[in-house]
Amino acid sequence: MEAKPQQAQRAAAGGRSLLDLDADLGALLSDERREAARRELHVRVTTFPVGEWDGTRLADADPTHLGLLVVEGVLAREVILGDTVSTELLGPGDIFRPWHIEGPPELLPVAVRWNALSTLRLGLIDRRAAAAIGRYPEVSAVIVDRLSERAQRLSITQAISQLNRVDRRLQALFWHLAERWGRVARDGIAVPLVLSHRLIGELVGARRPTVSTALAELARDGQLLRRDDGTWLLTGEPVDVPAGAAAEVIRQRRRLMPTPAEPATAAVAIAEPAGERMGELQASLHAARAITLQHRRDFDTIRAETSALRERTLQLRSRRADHLERLHDAAAARGPSSN
């Protein structure tokens, strides 16, 4: 009876509760399992100051460690290719791995550097924590969803960088950032990120002088303003999504890779005695029925669990929809700026 308190004490001594650091990781857990996960899942947390963060020190980390969780702050990941820098912003809830199983790319040499844009707190989800998370597939599902969301944000940023005017890129970028970091303010949507013109250029694929000119034009039009503290304020309308014929710029390719011709094979009929064949069919039928009944029971169990998870997922989507609706309502209430 004393093993569990001692185990909890040892875990607490080894770090902070993962769900205390990031409660949303337990969004799909029932109340009982959430409390158990809060006691069992612990990570070590380290704080880093503003400035360059040397992620290369972790290049030889144990590849079975799951990754690093951004607990607090904003981290810029800069990929350097030739004389061009492309930047990705990581914030609270993001999970990333500065180490790779296969190492860096060899055919296309790139360099990666990291910069903490604010005081940074990272939690190490090591192999011990990863093994404990394995007992909670609900938490694993949220982690995979976080990785999928990060990939989605990267694809959106890539699409933004291909817009044909820099001012359109900047508008799209800041509304994209507002969806995650935006806060409703008295005179618009506040984006509480201190981003220099150079860094913004690295986010949208443009040079700093071009970015400065486009930002000045957006400020004059009352679309985007830089506040006294260096953060940003969206005062215009969200970027419209093209509809109808305008949305169909390039048709999706029907086939990306050629399909090799499959060699034709002739079916060979093998004659078998009718009695033996009938006995085999009956035995196979009985076995199939037994398997079907077991699958049906398993399916009923999975369906019940899925229904509970679906209900929690709908609640999360509703909270996200309410947040986005507040942002849109604030933008609509602000209306076109008279500046």
Automatic annotation (TrEMBL):
InterPro entries reported for this sequence: HTH_CRP, RmlC-like_jellyroll, WH_DNA-bd_sf
GO biological process: regulation of DNA-templated transcription
GO molecular function, one term: DNA binding
Domain HTH crp-type: 164-238
PROSITE patterns: HTH_CRP_2
Source superkingdom: Bacteria
Pfam family of the protein (one): HTH_Crp_2
Name by which UniProt lists this protein: CRP-like cAMP-binding protein
